Amino acid sequence: MSTHTITVTVNGVAHTQEVEARLTLADLLRERLDLTATHLGCEHGVCGACTVVVDGHAARSCTTLAVQADGAEIRTLEGVAEGEELHPVQQAFWEKHGMQCGFCTPGIVMSLVELLERDPGPSERAIAAVLGGHLCRCTGYVKIREAAEEAVRLAAQGRSRGEAS
Amino acid sequence: MKPPPFDYAAPESLDEAIGLLAGDHEAKLLAGGQSLVPLLSMRLAYPDLLVDLRRIDGLDEISESDGHLVIGAMVRQLRAETSDAVAARCPLIVQALGQVAHPQIRARGTVGGSIAHADPAGELPAVAVALDARARVRGPGGERLVPAADLYRGIFTTSLAEAEIVSAVEFPVADDGAGSACVEVARRQGDYALCGAVAQVSTVDGVVAGARLALFGVADRPLRASAAEAELRETPAGEAPGVAAANVAQEIAFGNDPEVSAGYRRQIAAVSARRAIAQALEAAA
Fold first, then answer.
1. CB contact, 8 Å: B65 with chain A?
2. How far apart are CA A90 and CA A101, in angstroms?
3. Residue after which a domain boundary falls, among A50, A79, A108
4. N or C terminus: fewer CB in 10 A for chain B?
5. pTM (2 decimals)?
6. Of A108, A101, A103, A72, which Cα lies nearest the Cα of A87?
7. Which of B5, B42, B78 is closest, CB to CB, to A44?
8. How many CB atoms neighbour CB B31 within 10 A?
9. A165 within a domain of the structure (yes/no)
10. Count of Cβ atoms closer than 10 Å to residue B246 Cβ
11. Which domain CATH number covers A116?
12. Which helix (H) or strand (E) holds A74?
């Protein structure tokens, strides 16, 4: 059983850690770095609660080994808000109450944050494809879709405000 | 749900990786890990050593050579899916990748990983079989090309030797004017397919000139529907979807499994084949 020295940059901060090869990225984030906003549901890639952004792409942190993330740039829910100001996706989920118990929410927010960076005006179908990678066991998808659509609007408003100022 | 202990190596050359695979341990290759890491977490796999391909140069290139689109083994599925070169030269790959799990999985999963994992419900192995793609395989004895028809031997089983590595996959470029489609039946979008079909067709004056059809999730490996392909040649396009469905229902020996009965699988395989051929014809010029 080998251990390895890895360096990952999480929300802009570099962390060097000695890890067993079998440690997943999700457990690195939660147990070593105390970044517990990333939730673990199924732990085999199905539910999407553990989704984080790895080198610019939304990905499952439970099916990525920490050693595979050596040198990677990771973003988690903790790094999404700017100080006290919520990210448009967070604001939209707050305003539209796009959750019930909230367990699946961190992963969904990270997938949508990444979607909006890749595609600022996503189609309903593109939003559905991304949400398809997340299980909500409260079955509250209607509110989640409304929140996602609101997030697209809020992000666009934020951009036009930014351009005006 | 935590993986068992194992050693890990991330060599910088294929030869080094081959040496590690040939060594005296139970070694597994790690590409994107989207199938392997869940298998480890569920403790269905107990390797002594994982050999990660991520540091090896040259495995993540998409190029064209000799009438083939060559996709490196470590090209991420999402990158192949959004590649203009792949869309232009081999659109069936884009269509099939769109149905592989979810975007969050395809961001990490690789083309070579899907080809070598040999999941009978996998979309890409069926594409490889339908198009007569070839796997570029490196091993202790050098490089060889393995036709997809010779690659798949059973559930999660290929004809590759222990220390051989798929370094790239060569997909024949689609003929001008050909149309293609991937259709599958799954309980939810992104789930493993209960069954599915991939098709690529070309027509001349409203008559099928050539058809390629393969099914996945119907047997222990992807199956080429050869009888259907033969029947489809010179069939008027309007009749082709029905001809494909009828032949698929006859030529494949469907089995029962705990999830789906043979009769239901025969029905959805025929429906998948019909829709795949109909959609491919629509896309054909």
1. no
2. 15
3. A79
4. C
5. 0.96
6. A108
7. B42
8. 27
9. no
10. 16
11. 1.10.150.120
12. strand A73-75
How large is the ipTM? 0.95
Q: Mark yes or no for CB contact B52/A48 under 8 Å.
A: no
* C-alpha gyration radius of chain B: 19
- Domains belonging to chain B, first-starting first, are 7-52 (3.30.43.10), 62-172 (3.30.465.10), 179-283 (3.30.390.50)
DSSP state of A87: P
**Six-digit token pair at B131?**
């198009």
Cα(B108)–Cα(B152) distance, integer angstroms: 23
> pLDDT tens digits for chain A (165 residues)?
789 999 999 999 999 999 999 999 999 999 999 999 999 999 999 999 999 999 999 999 999 999 999 999 999 999 999 999 999 999 999 999 999 999 999 999 999 999 999 999 999 999 999 999 999 999 779 999 999 999 999 999 988 888 776
Provide the domain limits for residue A113. Answer: 88-160
Q: How far is CA B84 from the centre of its chain?
A: 20
The distance of B102 to chain A (nearest Cα, Å) reads: 5
> At residue B277, what is the residue type?
I
- Locate the DSSP E strands across chain B: 7-9, 27-30, 49-52, 62-65, 68-72, 134-139, 142-147, 152-154, 157-158, 165-172, 179-185, 195-204, 207-216, 223-224
Residue A104 has φ and ψ, to the nearest 5°, of -85, -10
Which of A27, A63, A133 is opposite residue B38, by nearest beta carbon?
Answer: A63
In angstroms, the separation between the Cα of residue B195 and the nearest Cα of chain A is 19
